[in-house]
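Problem: given the chain below (135 residues), write out its structure.
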Amino acid sequence: MNSVNTQLGSAQVRFNDYVGTAAADDADAVLATRSLYEIAGLNRDRWTIVGLDLALGESAGVVVYAADRLHDAEAVEADEVPVTAFRLAPSTQLHAFIAEAFKRVSVRLVMSAVRDKQFVVAGQTELSEPAADAT
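Solution.
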């Protein structure tokens, strides 16, 4: 995550072997935690957080994308939303950020080759440790 994208779309990595979706519940209602706005250091009266980049791996980091309510009041209604990218300090630990910012986070990744297929779960197995051969 060395550079900030100028246009946001789907999450991308070098080869995109697995692609997917993510969802998160905001932690505003959790007592004794800061809101996403407080963590990012943004004034809620001025900014509306509209997106996040959470990167794991060799270039771990967090970027918060926010629309300026003062200058772009109607922007959220338009086809393109002008945003400012706020890169959180490199010292921000991703796991700690996620734990404080969200009640729950769910990520689903599927192999690119089957991304448009409907999965039908035919069975389920609980693994107590990683299996060498899950047959």
